[in-house]
Amino acid sequence: MPKTAPSADPRRWTALIFIALAQLMVVLDATIVNIALPHAQAALDISESNKQWVITAYALAFGSLLLFGGRIADLWGRKQTFVIGLAGFAAASALGGAAVNEAMLLGARALQGVFGALLAPAALSLLAVMFTEPRERAKAFGIFGAIAGGGGAVGLILGGVLTQYMDWRWTFYVNIPFAIVAAVGAVLVIREPAGSRNSSKLDVPGVILATAGLVALVYGFTRAESDGWSDGGTIGMFVASVVLLAAFVVVEARVKAPLLPLRVITERNRAGAYLSLGLAIIGMFGLFLFLTYYMQVVKGYSPVKTGLAFLPMIAGMIIGSTQIGTRLMVRVAPRKLMAPGFLVGAVGMAMLSQIDLDSSYPALILPAFLLLGLGMGTAFMPAMSLATYGVQAQDAGVASAMVNTSQQVGGAIGTALLNTIAASATTDYARSHLAGAAGNPRLHMEALVHGYTVAIWWAVGILVVSAIIAAVFINAGRPNMNQTVAGSGDDQDQDIPVPVMAH
């Protein structure tokens, strides 16, 4: 017998503003510090070998604790976890802005990661349990998807403005007003649906194994970037990660109250969404890195001009997510948006592989950015919605954490993998063109750009694989407009089940 969804919270759209603001803050923080890093390094006398830890400390803490944060949100309540995450993130940001030495800055970045891991899944799972009507859900996830996709580029712009016109410390302090407004709004406006908490105990062995396994994985890719793929420590980290994560799966299949119920990731539509999203992020993160360097080092753009150059990509993402994705998601199956979206993104990425020393921004980079933004925005929105669709309300936090985990791990892999490919191609190009690149500035630039283009072609391939996964794995049909729970699980296109909140 079909069950109807409960009456919706009348203040859910106001709540979305504060949830989106918090998500923007978290996504911004992944890139805003990148542009400020050279200034912070000089001010605090951070060594060349330790500068990567300003980025890695955040990524390690955030990526490895997300599953734990998602389950805490399910157990404690999403609103409470959301507010605690905001308060802690603001305090960690204040600590980072006031840092007087390297250790204080690195500690603040790790703390930001810890509280971000509470905040991010709580934000997405609040959205999942508050918006259950398909049309509204499409709009809400369209806005959220645009922020998640374009926030990194906004971080580059804001980081450039704050660093160039104020001080690197403001890339930390800027989080505080965001957090205060979002926390006050959450306390006043957000209401969780009744009965959506999970009353089971915390799976401590699962927490330990998942956290250790993800730390080893993210750190392995970080080491690969700095020490090489064949380094003993790098290989050791990857082996440890495989062993720990395999043990985690075994434990989760046996315990009564698992940290990550395997039903969340074995359902083929969610699995396809997590996998395609994670792969797409691998390509996107690498691109941000290369294009930032290309514009500043090769083209000579200022930090602010570099940030502004990314604006068309953000505009494309917003249009793709809130207009194309939102309007079509209630009419067509998600894979019919995701697969073409990733392919359009791949075309934009392929155009960027044609950059050289004298490439025109309006003629080449601008149209490529627009295509990339439109494609990724269109694909991200149904992917993020599908990744939390149909889960039991008590699992919404951990399902949301899997979305964030695929993004964080994808970002770490993308940065390390594509950076290594680019560096290797640059070295080979310089060597094959005889005279050392150091003695010939133009050859040095040509070698750099060659490295970027080789890595961008890899990113094109990764986006094509994302499109294939979306087309093959995902078999959900368009959302059921009658708000009923779907029945069978055969290989034909099925109606996406609308989550029914437990009471």
Automatic annotation (TrEMBL):
InterPro entries (alphabetical): EmrB-like, MFS, MFS_dom, MFS_trans_sf, Sugar_transporter_CS
Protein name: MFS transporter
Topological relation to the membrane, as annotated: Multi-pass membrane protein
Keywords: Antibiotic resistance, Cell membrane, Membrane, Transmembrane, Transmembrane helix, Transport
Ranges annotated as spanning the membrane: 12-33, 53-70, 82-100, 112-131, 143-166, 172-190, 202-221, 233-251, 272-295, 307-325, 337-355, 361-380, 452-474
Species of origin: Streptomyces pactum
Organism lineage string: Bacteria, Bacillati, Actinomycetota, Actinomycetes, Kitasatosporales
Chief location bin: membrane
SUPFAM superfamilies linked to this entry: MFS general substrate transporter
Compartments where found: Cell membrane
Domain of life of the organism encoding this protein: Bacteria
Membrane is among the record's keywords: yes
Region (Disordered): 484-503
Occurrences of domain Major facilitator superfamily (MFS) profile (ranges): 15-478
PROSITE patterns: MFS, SUGAR_TRANSPORT_1
